[in-house]
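Posting this for the archive.
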Amino acid sequence: MSENNKRFPYSLDLASSLTAMALIIGFMYVTQSLLLPLLFSILISISLFPLAQFFERLRLGKAFASILAVIVAIAVISSIGWFIVHQSIIIGQDASSITEKVLSVLERAQVWIEETFGIQRSQVAEHLREQGNKLLANAGSMATATFGSIGNILAGAILVPLFSFFLLYYRDFFREFFFKAFKSVPQAKVDDTLNKIYQVVQSYLLGLVMVMGIVAVLNTIGLMMMGIDYAWFFGSLAALLMLLPYIGIAIGSILPALFALAVKDNALYAVGVIAWFQVVQFLEGNVITPNIVGSKVSINPLMAMIAMLLGGMLFGIAGLVIALPLTATIKVIFDAVPSMQAFGFLIGEPEKEHLKRNSTQELMMKWGIVRKPKTTSKIEIDVNIDTTIAPETIHVNYKEINESEENPYTNITPIDKPQEDQTTGENNAK
C-alpha cells in the first residue's frame, strides 16, 4: 500500500487530536488528587536535574545523588517557609499597637462614608452583622474544605519528594518508555522533542527563581525608602507570589499597602507602596523576564491568561502555578505533531511581520490570496548609452514599484549630453 493511501484526511486527524485532548483534560480533572503531586514532582525533578548531575559527577551514585538533590530542595523550601512563619510571628507580637491603628483607620473610614454617602454607622454595622451570619452559616463547609486542603497539602508534602526522587533516579527508564511508545515516529524526533520539553521547562523554572530574587530585592528597596517596617518580609512575600503569573505582584502589594495604611499617619504611603510595586511589575514583565528567560518560553500573553484561567478552573490555585510550564510543554508537543502545529503556532509569540502597519497586506500576499499591487502611474527613466562601445543589442532592466514603496526615480535629474549620445526610454509600469 502506498504512503498516500495510509494517510488520513487532515480533518480526521484534527478531529481525533481534539477529541484526545478533551479526553485528557477530563482525565486530568478526575484524577487531580494524584495528578497534581505528580505534575509538581515533574517540575521539581526537572529543576533538580543539573544538581543531581553535579552530584553524579562526584561519583556519588545515581540513587544517592538523586536523594541528595531532593534533600537540598526540601531544605531550601523549608527555609523559605520558616522565614515566612518567623516574620509573621514577629509582626504578630506588635499586633496590639497595629490593631489600635487599624481601628483608628476604620473609624476614619466610617466617618468618611457617613459624610460622603450619607450612610449611618448603624447601617454599616447591620450589613457587617449580616455578612458575619452568612459566614457562620457556612462555617461547617468552610472548615471541611480547609481540613481537606490541609490533608491534600500533607499528602503532597509526602508524595512530591518521593515522586521527585523516582523521576530523577528512573529518568533513563522513562525516556526509553517514550521511545517504545512512539515506535512509528523517528526516534531522533522523539529524543529532540523530549530535550525541547526539558529545556523549555528548565528555562522557565530557573529563570523564574532568578526573577523572583531580583524582584524581592527591588520590592525591599522601595519599601525601605518609604520607611515601611518588615520590608524584607513584604518584599520577599510579594516575590514568592510571582508563582501566580501576571497577578502575583499585584496581590502581593495589597498586604504591605494595608500595613502602611495602618502604621503610617498618611495614606500616601499606601498609594506609594502600590505604585512602586506596579513599577516593579512593569520592569519584570518588559525588562527582567525577557532578558533572563529569553524566547525559549514563547507563549503570547493572551494564551497565557487563558491557560491560567483553565488551570484555575481545573486545579484551583495550584493550576495557576503550573499553567505556564504546562502550556509551554503542550506547545512543544503540538509543534512536533503535524496535525496540531497550527495550535502550537497559536500558542506562540507573534512574529514582527504580524505587528507591522501593513501586515494584513503582506499576509494576504504571503498566502496567495491577493496579488502584489502595482502602480498605475508612468515612470520616466533616462537611459544614458555610450554608442562608441555599446553592443548591437541593448537590454534595459527595470523594476515595478509597489504602492507601499518609494519611487527611486523621482529625484533623478537628467544629464545633459549631446543628442546623438543619449537615448530616452519611457516605460509604463503596470
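The longest strand covers residues 379-384. The mean pLDDT is 77.
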